[in-house]
Amino acid sequence: MAFEKVTRSEDYSKWYNNLVVNADLAEHSAVRGCMVIKPYGYAIWEKMQQELDRMFKATGHSNAYFPLFVPKSLFEAEEKNAEGFAKECAVVTHYRLKTNPEDGTKLIVDPEARLEEELVVRPTSEAIIWNTYKGWIQSYRDLPILVNQWANVVRWEMRTRLFLRTAEFLWQEGHTAHATKAEALEETTQMLDVYADFAENFMAIPVVKGVKTENERFAGADDTYCIEGLMQDGKALQMGTSHFLGQNFAKAFDVRYTTKEGKQEFVWATSWGVSTRLMGALIMTHSDDEGLVLPPNLAPIQVVIVPIYKGQDQLDEISEKALGIQKELEKRGISVKFDNRDTHKPGFKFAEWELKGVPVRIAMGPRDLKNGTVEVARRDTKEKEVLQIDDLPTKVEHLLEAIQNNLFVKAETYRDNHITAVNTWDEFKDALENKTGFISAHWDGSGETEEKIKQETKATIRCIPFSAVEEEGKCVYTGNPSNKRVLFAKAY
Amino acid sequence: MAFEKVTRSEDYSKWYNNLVVNADLAEHSAVRGCMVIKPYGYAIWEKMQQELDRMFKATGHSNAYFPLFVPKSLFEAEEKNAEGFAKECAVVTHYRLKTNPEDGTKLIVDPEARLEEELVVRPTSEAIIWNTYKGWIQSYRDLPILVNQWANVVRWEMRTRLFLRTAEFLWQEGHTAHATKAEALEETTQMLDVYADFAENFMAIPVVKGVKTENERFAGADDTYCIEGLMQDGKALQMGTSHFLGQNFAKAFDVRYTTKEGKQEFVWATSWGVSTRLMGALIMTHSDDEGLVLPPNLAPIQVVIVPIYKGQDQLDEISEKALGIQKELEKRGISVKFDNRDTHKPGFKFAEWELKGVPVRIAMGPRDLKNGTVEVARRDTKEKEVLQIDDLPTKVEHLLEAIQNNLFVKAETYRDNHITAVNTWDEFKDALENKTGFISAHWDGSGETEEKIKQETKATIRCIPFSAVEEEGKCVYTGNPSNKRVLFAKAY
After folding, report:
1. Is A112 helix (H, G, I), strand (E, B) or coil?
2. Which residue of B37, B96, B107 is in closest CB contact with A72?
3. How many domains are there within chain B?
4. In chain B, which residues have their Cβ closer than 8 Å to the Cβ of A69?
5. For chain A, which terminal residue's Cβ has fewer other Cβ atoms within 10 angstroms, N or C?
6. Are A30 and B74 a contacting pair at CB < 8 A?
7. In sequence order, what DSSP letters do the residues of B399-422 get, joined into one string?
8. Using the beta-carbon criterion (under 8 Å), do B156 and A96 form an inter-chain contact?
9. Can you list the alpha helix ranges (DSSP code H) found in A59-178?
10. Is the residue at A4 inside a domain?
11. B228 has which bridge partners?
12. Is the Cβ pair A67, B168 closer than 8 Å?
């Protein structure tokens, strides 16, 4: 492993990039801003997909698939949405290559194969989906429509970082249609709750639920709800959003339904999504200078067994025991890898599985064989203990639960210690620079003030927390009256 | 339901399109040649994905994800591959839209945001993947690489049909790298066997395994193995391909490895894929004039329960029983829908579930309540029987197995009756026109002959079956010597 040793305190950004590449999660591709998600990284993403998909289905949603391309005329139908994404659209203009007549070998774009109408590679699918829903919805009987899509989307970002911001990324986007505003609002909230549940109970990341300010709202939404996490370097990361779209897309695409009473009404909409960006959040919340730390609920390999042996006979003996342990653990739904490679030494394996964040490592040597024991090490605290093989299944099961819980508590403690309430502009700047994390402060509600604060400090309003209490206060920047604190932070 | 009544014998093609749309499987989108896969259709595709994914993992493969875009210079590196796909490539040339300065509202492609190098939307991913593998492979220890990708691809087709041929489609593409030719060949065969296993045991479609002629080979492959199915209208459909790519891509991208002995060798490659085209095969193999017929192993809903009642009291009584049945069946892993909608009559529901191909329908009325019985109808044969509720779980389990088996046997009988061995050109034309199906005939091995036959009859060589016996013969078209029969057919 060429794991370049850069610690978090030395250079958090470099540490992150090294970790992503060296733990075999992802790498940059030959295509500007696009990444390759490597098998180990993709296995974690698959675990996320499985859980989220289960949660979506449990709340009544079905999957479907809509085209990758959006004709320009549809794309521009909802003006705010179009305006918000126009600057980062990859555009298909031609549908054929041909041999270059000049050199006869290389290919060029065939100028005769120009599309009549350009196609936008979807940066998000509201337009193509609402154009489709128009054909699906006539009456109140056709509602609600509760559909999700797992797909790739493209947003031409100029400054990219693996998982956190890439030109192409993988995500899911839910798109629902409802008869009433109340029902759409309820859906918006429900899906935010699903995301928060997933973040906290699977990713072990505590999140703040809240609503975005108008400046930070999804283009085309009436309201954007979000979950915000806090990374180890004190920067916030938006982990998921759920949008109440009002009737904006229904109006842009003329989607109406007949009510029970025979009236024509526009349909109400939501959309909601999380992406491979969650991988970035997962890495940055829990990992340490030795590498990735994975919460057991999302680890593709929960337990690795490493044999320590001299010669084939000892390996055979250990293998027999190890395979028995593997079988017992797998019976309880625990995923286990027995690393019996003869090409690498135990020390190398220890470091590799540490780098890859496997929650529990079991080592087994000749003395263990004699004593009926193994050495069990947990990745999060690096504590080790010697356990009887007979006790292993139950103990490992509990250990995995303990690790999952410990990671959450640790992240929560860090997060709670990094929410600083301030009342003056000096306190604001001081906390932002010296303490980092979320700054809880009064704000006068104006977009202009928000923008000025951003210009001066790079901090943005992450959200107006749902849990914010009503209190009299003065905007930390203008002194104008405010009745609620909002959360500021520098963010990814 | 606006199920326009067109029978297969009246117009097979129209019957197919109506069925796809009316059974809520897919529909045309606003994007030329691209389809929307609707929730019910997507649920079937998800079942296919799950099974295939399980099979890929059981044979040692992992999933990963590679970019949607291929820079033109990489795309053209493997010349034959590039030549084969150049004519159907969607090309991204720009990365930004801007407001039209002339009218100030509509968007236009920003001429200043022209890409330095055009990006091809992947029609297949060998180029981008082998360019990536170059960085992954140094030594024999890095081999084999056994990776699969679930993705969307785009091939700009001029004549499209839902599922069978669309500009964008969903598929999986396996891309493996090996140290030796023998190992790569073994992989090519193994994955073809996986496809055949899936086709026969899940889709209930018998397939012929064989090798493609040079004319029909994948562009860039040394050999293409395939599985070919036969549809009800006597036309063949290529259901999956597994390519032995030799060292072509390794040479194009200079991917070498150091052997145990310290020598530098080019890496050997395979690729293999199946796509949403399988949905077309599934539909066309089993369905009838009343609608879709799904093999139980791929049906999202295996059993539907329809209550027949007057008034809420009766519905309540039936519901209690029905929910009990549902629970018992679900315990055995059977997926059940209790259709208690009060907006539709039983007759309507019967027709709808028939159209949607649910394998088993259970109806329950007041008399059944009294007798402790239900009426069970199977979708494939339309047979009905009255069964005791107590016997239901076991009987339904057996019924589902029987239906799965019956569909396969029926398709196999049809297929076997439609393989016609011919020895003269007149017999060939006669069988092709009047009997349809596969024509087993001698061929002289020349691409020119193959092409002439295609021009004259529209029949192509579907494959040289692996099971073909060595026998002396004369080419049905030229009379030249041949030592094996090949399978001709008109094909999708």
Report:
1. helix
2. B107
3. 3
4. 31, 34, 90, 168
5. N
6. yes
7. HHHHHHHHHHHHHHHHHHHTEEE-
8. yes
9. 72-75, 79-86, 126-136
10. no
11. B208, B238
12. yes
Residue B327's domain is classified under what CATH number?
3.40.50.800
Mean pLDDT across the stretch B268-296?
98
Closest chain A residue to the Cα of B128, Cα to Cα: A30
Q: What pLDDT shows up at residue B3?
A: 54
Q: What is the pTM assigned to this prediction?
A: 0.97
Report pLDDT digits (tens) over A192-244.
999 999 999 999 999 999 999 999 999 999 999 999 999 999 999 999 999 99
Same domain? For B432 and B373 the reply is no
Identity of the residue in A62, A64, A121 whose CB atom sits nearest the CB atom of B92: A121
Tokens of B207: 């397939």
Rounded mean pLDDT, B341-348:
93
> Tokens at residue B488, please?
């001709």
Angstrom distance (rounded) from CA A321 to CA B342: 60
User: A268: closest CA among A184, A326, A157?
Assistant: A184
Q: Tell whether A147 is covered by a domain.
A: yes
CB contacts of A21 in chain B (<8 Å) are: none
User: What are A346-366's pLDDT values in tens digits?
Assistant: 999 999 999 999 999 999 999
Q: Are residues A348 and A450 in the same domain?
A: no
- If you search the block for the tokens 């700054």, which residue do you land on? A439
CATH assignment of the domain containing A260: 3.30.930.10
Digit-coded pLDDT (tens) for B117-176: 999 999 999 999 999 999 999 999 999 999 999 999 999 988 999 999 999 999 999 999
Q: What is the pLDDT of residue A158?
A: 86
Same domain, A315 and A266: no
Interface with A, mutate which of B21, B24, B27, B29 (most A CBs under 10 A): B29
Q: Which residues of A touch B133 (CB under 8 A)?
A: none
Q: Look up the ipTM and state it.
A: 0.97
Judged by DSSP in three states, A436 sits in coil
In this predicted structure, the answer to whether residue B351 has a pLDDT above a threshold of 90 is yes
DSSP string of A66-84, one letter each residue: --SEEEHHHHTSSHHHHHH
| Whether residue A426 sits in one domain with residue A398 | no
Residues of chain A contacting B177 with CB distance shorter than 8 Å: none
Q: What is the pLDDT of residue A3?
A: 54
Note whether B34 contacts A68, CB cutoff 8 Å: yes
pLDDT tens-digit readout, A363-409: 999 999 999 999 999 999 999 999 999 999 999 999 999 999 999 99
Structural domain span for residue B485: 419-489
Do both A373 and A440 map to the same domain? no
Read off the pLDDT of residues A295-347 as tens digits, 9 standing for 90 and up.
999 999 999 999 999 999 999 999 999 999 999 999 999 999 999 998 899 99
Same domain membership, residue B211 and residue B351: no
Sign of CA dihedral B68, B72, B73, B77: positive
C-beta atoms of B88 and A79 within 8 A? no
Cβ–Cβ gap A39/B82 under 8 Å: no
Q: What is the pLDDT of residues B82-127, one digit of tens each?
A: 999 999 999 999 999 999 988 877 899 999 999 999 999 999 999 9
Residue B74: strand, helix, or coil:
helix
User: Do the chains contact at B34 and A141, CB–CB below 8 Å?
Assistant: no
Domain boundary among B286, B306, B330: B286
Is residue B79 assigned to a domain? no
B239 pLDDT higher than 50: yes
Across the interface, whether the CB atoms of A65 and B154 are under 8 A apart is answered: no
Within B202-345, where are the H helices? 248-252, 277-286, 311-331
* Domain boundary residue, one of B286, B313, B329: B286
| CA separation for the pair A132, A70 (Å, rounded) | 12
- Least CB-CB distance to A92: which of B67, B105, B121? B121
Asked if B30 and A71 come within 8 Å (Cβ–Cβ), the reply is: yes
Same domain, A301 and A175: no
Does any domain span residue A213?
Answer: yes
Beta bridge partners of A337: A304
In chain B, which residues have their Cβ closer than 8 Å to the Cβ of A75? 97, 107
Does B310 lie in the same domain as B200?
no
